[in-house]
Amino acid sequence: MCHGVLQDPAFFHFLTRIDEEFAAATRLGRCPGCAGPLHVADFPRKPRGCPAAVREAYSWRLSFTCGRCDGRATSPSVRFAGRRVYLAVVLMLASPPGSSSGQALCDLLSIPGRTLKRWRTWWRKDFPLTPFWQSMRERFMPPVVTEQLPHSLLERFDANEMADRVAQLLRFIAPLSTRATTT
User: Fold this and answer.
1) I need a surface site. Which of 29, 54, 79, 171 has the fewest CB within 10 A?
2) If you write DSSP's letter for every residue of 33-71 in order, what string do you get?
3) How much is the pTM?
4) Boundaries of domain holding 74
Protein backbone atom coordinates (compact mmCIF):
# COMPACT_ATOMS: atom_id res chain seq x y z
CA MET A 1 0.00 0.00 0.00
CA CYS A 2 1.09 3.55 -0.65
CA HIS A 3 2.27 5.46 2.40
CA GLY A 4 2.62 8.71 0.48
CA VAL A 5 -0.67 9.84 2.00
CA LEU A 6 1.02 9.84 5.41
CA GLN A 7 3.47 12.48 4.21
CA ASP A 8 0.85 14.74 2.63
CA PRO A 9 -0.48 17.44 4.99
CA ALA A 10 -3.26 18.18 2.48
CA PHE A 11 -4.60 14.64 2.99
CA PHE A 12 -4.70 15.16 6.76
CA HIS A 13 -6.43 18.53 6.33
CA PHE A 14 -8.97 16.79 4.10
CA LEU A 15 -9.65 14.24 6.85
CA THR A 16 -10.10 17.10 9.32
CA ARG A 17 -12.75 18.64 7.05
CA ILE A 18 -14.60 15.31 6.89
CA ASP A 19 -14.57 15.11 10.70
CA GLU A 20 -15.87 18.67 10.88
CA GLU A 21 -18.77 17.68 8.60
CA PHE A 22 -19.56 14.71 10.86
CA ALA A 23 -19.40 17.00 13.92
CA ALA A 24 -21.71 19.57 12.33
CA ALA A 25 -24.29 16.85 11.65
CA THR A 26 -24.00 15.61 15.24
CA ARG A 27 -24.36 19.16 16.59
CA LEU A 28 -27.61 19.62 14.64
CA GLY A 29 -29.06 16.70 16.58
CA ARG A 30 -30.00 16.44 20.21
CA CYS A 31 -28.62 14.47 23.14
CA PRO A 32 -29.25 10.77 22.51
CA GLY A 33 -30.06 10.29 26.21
CA CYS A 34 -32.49 13.10 27.01
CA ALA A 35 -32.92 15.10 23.76
CA GLY A 36 -31.30 18.11 25.37
CA PRO A 37 -29.21 20.70 23.50
CA LEU A 38 -25.61 19.88 22.61
CA HIS A 39 -22.64 22.12 23.40
CA VAL A 40 -19.06 21.90 22.13
CA ALA A 41 -16.89 19.80 24.43
CA ASP A 42 -13.90 18.73 22.34
CA PHE A 43 -11.38 16.66 24.24
CA PRO A 44 -7.60 16.40 23.94
CA ARG A 45 -5.84 13.58 22.11
CA LYS A 46 -2.17 12.70 21.75
CA PRO A 47 -2.28 10.89 18.44
CA ARG A 48 0.66 8.85 17.25
CA GLY A 49 1.58 8.65 13.59
CA CYS A 50 0.64 12.27 13.01
CA PRO A 51 2.81 14.55 10.85
CA ALA A 52 4.14 17.61 12.68
CA ALA A 53 2.41 19.92 10.18
CA VAL A 54 -1.05 18.85 11.42
CA ARG A 55 -0.32 17.83 15.01
CA GLU A 56 -2.17 20.80 16.54
CA ALA A 57 -5.36 20.12 14.56
CA TYR A 58 -5.15 16.44 15.47
CA SER A 59 -4.70 17.09 19.18
CA TRP A 60 -8.48 17.46 19.65
CA ARG A 61 -11.34 15.03 19.12
CA LEU A 62 -14.55 16.81 18.14
CA SER A 63 -17.30 16.09 20.64
CA PHE A 64 -20.32 17.57 22.44
CA THR A 65 -21.99 17.39 25.83
CA CYS A 66 -25.63 17.77 26.68
CA GLY A 67 -26.72 21.01 28.30
CA ARG A 68 -29.23 19.07 30.42
CA CYS A 69 -27.86 15.69 31.47
CA ASP A 70 -24.15 16.29 30.74
CA GLY A 71 -24.11 13.20 28.50
CA ARG A 72 -21.53 13.05 25.73
CA ALA A 73 -22.29 12.86 22.01
CA THR A 74 -19.15 12.22 19.98
CA SER A 75 -19.43 12.27 16.21
CA PRO A 76 -17.87 9.57 14.02
CA SER A 77 -14.30 10.25 12.92
CA VAL A 78 -12.06 9.42 9.98
CA ARG A 79 -9.05 10.66 11.94
CA PHE A 80 -9.38 8.58 15.09
CA ALA A 81 -10.18 4.87 15.47
CA GLY A 82 -12.10 4.98 18.72
CA ARG A 83 -9.80 5.18 21.72
CA ARG A 84 -6.70 3.91 19.90
CA VAL A 85 -3.72 6.24 20.16
CA TYR A 86 -2.54 5.76 16.58
CA LEU A 87 -4.44 7.53 13.82
CA ALA A 88 -7.04 5.50 11.93
CA VAL A 89 -5.07 5.79 8.69
CA VAL A 90 -2.01 4.29 10.40
CA LEU A 91 -4.11 1.45 11.79
CA MET A 92 -5.32 0.73 8.29
CA LEU A 93 -2.04 1.07 6.37
CA ALA A 94 0.15 -0.82 8.83
CA SER A 95 -2.20 -3.77 9.38
CA PRO A 96 -2.19 -5.86 6.18
CA PRO A 97 -0.55 -9.22 6.96
CA GLY A 98 2.68 -10.03 5.15
CA SER A 99 3.06 -6.46 3.92
CA SER A 100 6.65 -5.27 3.73
CA SER A 101 5.44 -1.69 3.33
CA GLY A 102 3.30 -2.14 6.45
CA GLN A 103 6.35 -3.39 8.33
CA ALA A 104 8.38 -0.42 7.07
CA LEU A 105 5.66 1.90 8.37
CA CYS A 106 5.72 0.14 11.75
CA ASP A 107 9.49 0.57 11.90
CA LEU A 108 9.24 4.24 10.91
CA LEU A 109 6.58 5.00 13.55
CA SER A 110 8.05 2.66 16.19
CA ILE A 111 4.83 0.65 16.42
CA PRO A 112 5.44 -2.27 18.80
CA GLY A 113 5.01 -5.76 17.36
CA ARG A 114 2.31 -6.65 19.89
CA THR A 115 0.32 -3.55 18.89
CA LEU A 116 0.51 -4.56 15.24
CA LYS A 117 -0.55 -8.10 16.16
CA ARG A 118 -3.54 -6.70 18.07
CA TRP A 119 -4.54 -4.58 15.07
CA ARG A 120 -4.32 -7.52 12.70
CA THR A 121 -6.41 -9.61 15.08
CA TRP A 122 -8.99 -6.83 15.20
CA TRP A 123 -9.22 -6.68 11.41
CA ARG A 124 -9.33 -10.46 10.89
CA LYS A 125 -11.39 -11.61 13.89
CA ASP A 126 -13.16 -8.72 15.64
CA PHE A 127 -14.11 -6.45 12.74
CA PRO A 128 -15.94 -9.22 10.79
CA LEU A 129 -18.08 -9.91 13.87
CA THR A 130 -19.20 -6.33 14.44
CA PRO A 131 -22.89 -5.61 13.82
CA PHE A 132 -21.68 -2.83 11.51
CA TRP A 133 -19.78 -5.23 9.21
CA GLN A 134 -22.49 -7.88 9.44
CA SER A 135 -24.97 -5.36 8.03
CA MET A 136 -22.60 -3.94 5.38
CA ARG A 137 -20.57 -6.86 4.02
CA GLU A 138 -23.15 -7.88 1.43
CA ARG A 139 -22.58 -4.58 -0.38
CA PHE A 140 -19.19 -5.75 -1.61
CA MET A 141 -18.70 -7.97 -4.62
CA PRO A 142 -16.66 -10.00 -4.90
CA PRO A 143 -16.80 -10.71 -1.16
CA VAL A 144 -14.05 -9.25 0.99
CA VAL A 145 -11.37 -11.76 1.99
CA THR A 146 -11.28 -11.65 5.79
CA GLU A 147 -7.69 -12.89 6.05
CA GLN A 148 -6.54 -9.93 3.94
CA LEU A 149 -8.36 -7.14 5.74
CA PRO A 150 -8.07 -4.17 5.52
CA HIS A 151 -6.36 -4.44 2.12
CA SER A 152 -9.13 -6.55 0.57
CA LEU A 153 -11.69 -3.96 1.66
CA LEU A 154 -9.62 -1.03 0.39
CA GLU A 155 -9.51 -2.70 -3.04
CA ARG A 156 -13.31 -2.52 -3.24
CA PHE A 157 -13.39 1.28 -3.25
CA ASP A 158 -13.26 2.85 -6.68
CA ALA A 159 -10.92 5.80 -7.04
CA ASN A 160 -7.91 6.58 -9.19
CA GLU A 161 -5.82 8.03 -6.38
CA MET A 162 -4.77 5.98 -3.35
CA ALA A 163 -5.54 8.93 -1.06
CA ASP A 164 -9.15 8.93 -2.29
CA ARG A 165 -9.51 5.19 -1.67
CA VAL A 166 -8.06 5.53 1.80
CA ALA A 167 -10.44 8.41 2.57
CA GLN A 168 -13.41 6.40 1.27
CA LEU A 169 -12.52 3.45 3.49
CA LEU A 170 -11.98 5.69 6.51
CA ARG A 171 -15.35 7.32 5.90
CA PHE A 172 -16.93 3.87 5.54
CA ILE A 173 -15.62 2.58 8.89
CA ALA A 174 -16.10 5.91 10.72
CA PRO A 175 -19.22 4.63 12.56
CA LEU A 176 -16.89 2.26 14.41
CA SER A 177 -15.00 5.21 15.90
CA THR A 178 -17.71 5.91 18.47
CA ARG A 179 -19.01 3.79 21.32
CA ALA A 180 -22.62 3.70 20.17
CA THR A 181 -22.43 2.17 16.71
CA THR A 182 -25.57 2.23 14.64
CA THR A 183 -26.05 0.80 11.19
Assistant:
1) 29
2) TT-PPEEE--EE---BS--GGGTTGGGEE-EEEETTT--
3) 0.89
4) 4-176
